[in-house]
Amino acid sequence: FIELLIHTTDMKYVSELSNTPAFKEVDYDKTDLAILKDRVLLFKGKKQCFGMVVTAKKDENGKFVTKPLPIRDEKNVDKRRKEHGLPPLADYIKVTEGTFNKFLKNKPKV
Fold it and tell me: Who contacts 63 (Cβ-Cβ below 8 Å, separation ≥6)?
């Protein structure tokens, strides 16, 4: 269920639903909750908390480079990530870049 919320474009609905008692009773995966929280914060025009939402663009060598959208109190982001059981931001960025580049290498021809 949370995967659907993470990928929906109706962030108003996600924001409202994620504040309901029923939603808070479920023990969701920490990574999924962090992504959801950051998406809701960005939707509300605020900076994200964990750096889970990234942009990706190709560098001069044709490889994807990812960068998180603005993060509040960025100097303490790894502390917040650790408190929530998440890897350091630099490690997460490497994973996102690896995922984008793996897709690029293996993408189907259309």
Answer: 97, 101, 104
Helices (H), 27-66: 30-43
This prediction has a pTM of: 0.76
* 13-54: pLDDT as tens digits: 777 776 667 666 666 678 888 888 898 899 889 999 999 999
- By residue count, the chain amounts to 110
Residue 12, CB half-sphere, CA atoms under 13 Å: how many?
0
Are the C-beta atoms of 84 and 90 separated by less than 8 Å? no
CB 67 within 8 A of CB 55: yes
| Token pair recorded at residue 27 | 């023990």
